[in-house]
Design goal:
4 strands; four-stranded mixed β-sheet; 3 helices; about 30% helix
Length: about 100
């Protein structure tokens, strides 16, 4: 699984379909880049969308699947403070033979 940690188009940039175009390019380019650099073929890409600040509508429109919501603890929360914003978790399969690969 590969994490897509940051994706933001600033509000004053108005280009039709820019978000879907960029994410489509990334999804096509990423497997080859990872295979070349790490000799590993990724199967999934994931991202987190801060709620309620953002809706994740772009990911939904591109066929990503929302699989849950974080608890708001953050990566280094060792004392269950839950002082971070909650985020929806979205994933997208990268390979066409996904059933065979994911079921291993």
């Amino acid at each position: 699984m590969v994490d897509n940690p940051r994706f933001l188009i600033l509000p004053w940039i108005v280009i039709p379909n820019l978000g879907s175009h960029i994410l489509s390019l990334v999804r096509r380019q990423l497997p080859g880049d990872w295979t070349e650099r790490y000799n590993v073929m990724p199967v999934l890409i994931e991202t987190f969308v801060e709620t309620p600040r953002f809706t994740g509508a772009l990911y939904k429109a591109l066929g990503w699947t929302r699989v849950g919501t974080t608890q708001g603890r953050g990566r280094y929360d060792r004392h269950t403070k839950r002082d971070r914003p909650k985020k929806d978790i979205w994933i997208r399969l990268l390979r066409k033979d996904r059933r065979r690969t994911v079921n291993r």
